[in-house]
Amino acid sequence: MRVLGVDPGLTRCGLGIVEGAPGRPPKLVAVGVIRTPTDLDVAQRLVLIEAGIEQWIAEHAPDAVAVERVFAQHNVRTVMGTAQASGVAMVVAARRGLPVALHTPSEVKAAVTGSGRAGKEQVTSMVTRILQLPERPTPADAADALALAICHVWRGAGTSRRQEAAQSELEARARAQSQVQVAKVQAALAQATQIRQAQLRAVRGGKR
Q1: CATH superfamily, with its number, for domain 2-163
Q2: Which pTM value belongs to this model?
Q3: Where along the chain is Mg(2+) 2 bound (predicted)?
Q4: Which sequence positions are flagged as catalytic?
Q5: Sheet holding 12-19, edge to edge
């Protein structure tokens, strides 16, 4: 599985692509950052981010896209930009028919370091070790994007199986409910038929 990890941000949007499978060390495919000038309008900056992600998907052909789930922060302006960049990433992926997964920061940290409270330095160090890189990926946005991709490679298959199992259970419940509804309708029709027949017999008996 080849996964594009996106660490959303308006000024710096980290991108990292890894290839691998659950239980196996993933390999680095590409890593980088999309930067947008702060003097541009937000709409123009989002267009630049969209174009950059489009280019990466076209060039590297990932099988899925993993995006960091945005949480509220004290700096409302920062979280707004992060959410907007996140939305752009999801739209680009959906437009190309790629599955999109959202992973929380603690989930990514736990997958990469074993602790959901790990700091950025620890995450970067573990990403460097897992991918056997000659040097640490910089800036932190790039390392976080790789961590997202690694997290999805290692956990994505399990998540898919759980989703498939849940979907199968829902479908089974729907079929069972449908069968119950059909049985109820059939019983109601049979009862109505019996009542109608009884009424006809009563009418015929009265005519005699």
Answers
A1: Ribonuclease H-like superfamily/Ribonuclease H (3.30.420.10)
A2: 0.75
A3: 68
A4: 7, 68, 141
A5: 27-35, 12-19, 2-7, 64-68, 100-103
